[in-house]
Design goal:
about 160 residues, mainly alpha, single chain, 2 domains
C-alpha cells in the first residue's frame, strides 16, 4: 500500500526539481554557446550539480524530453560540423579530452605549488638581506668604536 506524501513536502520537492531543471537548462545553453559537446558529465560540471542527480528518474525524463539526451547518449546536434563520427572514435576523443583536462589541472596545481615555493624563497631571501644589512651596520659601528678607542690610545703615547 503506497504511502501518502504530504502536500507541503510535494511542493518543496517540486520546487527543488524546478531549480535543478533551471540549472540544467542554463548549463546546456552555456555549453551550446561555447560550442562544446553536451554530455551528462559536462552538464554536471557546468551546473554544479552532483553526478548522482542525473541518475534520478525525473532528471532522466527531463533530459530526454527537453534535450533528447538519453541515459548515456550525447547530444550530437551540438557539434559544430555535421560530420557523423564513429562512436568508438568519438568516445576515444572524449577520453583524450578528459585526460588532457586532468593533466592540465595537475600541471596548474604544480605551477601554483612552485609559485608558492618561490614566494617562500623570496621571503626568506628578503629576511636574510635584512639580516645582512643589520649585521653590516653593527660591524660598521664596532669598527668606528675601535677607531675611536685606538685613536685615544695613540694620543696617550
Amino acid at each position: 500500500m503506497p504511502r501518502k506524501i504530504p502536500l507541503k513536502l510535494q511542493e518543496v520537492q517540486q520546487a527543488h526539481r524546478e531549480k535543478t531543471y533551471k540549472k540544467i537548462e542554463a548549463a546546456v545553453s552555456l555549453l551550446k554557446t561555447e560550442g562544446r559537446i553536451i554530455t551528462r558529465s559536462r552538464i554536471a560540471e557546468t551546473s554544479g550539480l552532483a553526478a548522482s542527480t542525473f541518475c534520478k528518474q525525473h532528471v532522466k525524463e527531463f533530459l530526454l524530453k527537453r534535450f533528447g539526451i538519453g541515459a548515456k547518449e550525447i547530444l550530437v546536434s551540438s557539434l559544430r560540423s555535421s560530420i557523423v563520427y564513429d562512436e568508438n572514435r568519438f568516445n576515444e576523443l572524449l577520453r583524450q579530452n578528459d585526460d588532457l583536462a586532468k593533466r592540465l589541472l595537475r600541471t596548474e596545481q604544480r605551477l601554483d605549488n612552485e609559485r608558492q615555493r618561490i614566494k617562500e624563497v623570496i621571503a626568506c631571501r628578503d629576511a636574510l638581506d635584512h639580516e645582512v644589512k643589520v649585521l653590516r651596520g653593527e660591524l660598521d659601528i664596532a669598527k668606528r668604536k675601535i677607531r675611536i678607542i685606538y685613536g685615544k690610545k695613540g694620543l696617550d703615547k
